[in-house]
C-alpha cells in the first residue's frame, strides 16, 4: 500500500497537470482566436484600401465628379436604336460611351486649384518628365547626382513593372471612379510605379546631395516628402490607382532604398572603374527586357521598361567613358560645395544649356529611331507604317532600347562637350 501522504502528493500533482493542460488549451484557443481576428482585420483593411469606393471618396472630397447628364442637342439615336438622327450627332467619348450631347467630357471639376495641382503632380511621375529632368540635373547641377538618380530609377521601375505583370491586380473600376488618364489603363495596378519612382527619386537625391552640396537637410526632407506625397496623391485623384497600390509602391521603394543605400559608394566605384562595366550595363538590361513577363494582351509596361533601362544603360556607359577619358564634368571640390547666389546670368546659362541639350536629345532620338526602325522592319519583312508590328517583342525591344541607350550616351558624353564649345559651361 502507498502511504497516505505520498498518495495525496500524486493526486495533487495530477490535478496540477490537468490544470496546466486546460490552461494551455485555453491559451492556445485564445491565440488561435486572436490570429483569426487579426487575419480577418488585415483582410478587411487590405480590401478597404484596395476598394474603388475609397478612391471615389477622395475624388469627391477634392471636387472631381463624373459628368452630369448633359442637355441634349437633338434626338441622336442611342446604340442599337434604328431611328435616324434628326438635329443631333452621336459620338463616342474617351470613356467608350455613346453620347448625343455637344460635350464629350467624362468628368466635372468643382475645385480647379486642386485639379491643376494634382494633374501637374501626376506629370512629375511620368517617364517623359524624368527623361528631361534627369539630364537637367546632369547639365546644371552635378553628374554624380544624376548617376545616382538614374541607377535607382531604373532599379525601382523594373521591379515595379515586373511586379505589376506578375501579380496582375486590377486598377480601380470606372465607373464609379473617374479616370483622367487612359494610356496606361491596360496595365495592372499594384504597385504604383509612379509612387515608387517619386519616392526613390526624391529620397535618393536627399540622401546623395549632402555628399556634394551644402544645404539644410530638414528643408530637403520636407521637399522630398511633399513632392513624393503629391505624386502619390495624384494617382488617387486621377483614378489610376487604389490607396493599396500607392502604399505598396512607397513601401517597396523604401525597402529597395534601405537595402541598397549602404552599397552605393561601392557600386559607384565599380560602375566607373571596372573594365566589364560597359559590357555588363549594356547586356544585362537588354537581357532583362527580353525576359520581361509575357501577357495575354498588349500592354505599355514592356515598352516603358525598355525605355527606362535603355536610357539607364546608355548613361552608365557614358559615365564610364567620361571617367576613362578623365573628363567627368563634375564640380571641383572640396565637397560639399557651397551653392553660389542665383543670378540672372546663371539662370540664362542654365536655360540655354537645357534648351540646347534638349534639342540635341530630340535630334538623337529621331535619328536613331528612324535608322533602327528601318533596319528592323527590313530584317523582319514588315512595312514601316505597320503599327501593330511594332508591338512585337522582337521589334519593340531593340527599337526602344537602341533609341534610348543612344540618348543616354549622347546626354552623358556629347552634350557637355558641345556646351564647352559653345562656352555654356
From TrEMBL:
It comes from Astyanax mexicanus (Blind cave fish). One of its GO terms (molecular function) is sphingosine-1-phosphate phosphatase activity. One of its GO terms (biological process) is sphingosine metabolic process. Gene3D superfamilies: Phosphatidic acid phosphatase type 2/haloperoxidase (1.20.144.10). PANTHER family: SPHINGOSINE-1-PHOSPHATE PHOSPHATASE 2, SPHINGOSINE-1-PHOSPHATE PHOSPHOHYDROLASE. This is Sphingosine-1-phosphate phosphatase 2. Keywords: Membrane, Transmembrane, Transmembrane helix. InterPro entries: PAP2/HPO, PAP2/HPO_sf. Residues 80-93 have a biased composition (Polar residues). It comes from the Eukaryota. Residues 74-102 are annotated as: Disordered. Residues 147-261 form the Phosphatidic acid phosphatase type 2/haloperoxidase domain. The chain crosses the membrane at residues 114-137, 219-237, 244-264, 342-364, 401-422.
